[in-house]
């Protein structure tokens, strides 16, 4: 890949990575806002989702079965290496896990994890986080399945700032089946820092700057997890930049909840300003 940091327009391209139970459509807000600011924005779907509609995936989720985190990370690596320059990489939820895995491969000029799940060795697991995975984890024989997300569970995981009826409307527009294997791999990696699928080198000194974003009332990735991720990176003494921001009153739906514009603008401004600083002393 060309090591140049920006395109001919003077702006870094941006790759957006969606999370579990979602499709690229979940990024429509940020993607359009970033394009309006002159950035090329690439929003690929996970393998099996690709550019399919929500309705089509619900009708036939077979392509989601058995796919794990390494396959997804490899999929994004191929897409990123085909770009003419290194991008800014942003990921939401499990997309934030993948973003950290790609950061460990040195594929971006800056990274933003929006309510990012923890990588291997980050052991914080609040009860609300465990509850979000209960429908999947309760059936170990369904490890390679693609379980639907109920409207009730969507309300707990994504719509907990809304009345149930309003949350159900969002479910209709956005929610798709799970990649069960992804959830199992994420959980089992927590206690396996050296051998877990999501392992990264927290001490890496040449990792481009990483921003971690948390929402105050997020049930899936509460602030305690994001703080634990930051602490894990900082505890190594690496000079690579890792910073954290928390937003009051925000749920796991940080990319589309009312007021998302503030978070999008601040995330982009941070990434652009730090993209030219691959390493620096930890504050």
TrEMBL record:
Pfam families per record: Abhydrolase_6 (PF12697)
GO molecular function, one term: hydrolase activity
Keywords: Hydrolase
Keyword presence, Transit peptide: no
Domain AB hydrolase-1, chain residue ranges per copy: 14-265
Name of the protein: Alpha/beta hydrolase
Organism field: Microbacterium luteolum
Record's signal peptide: none
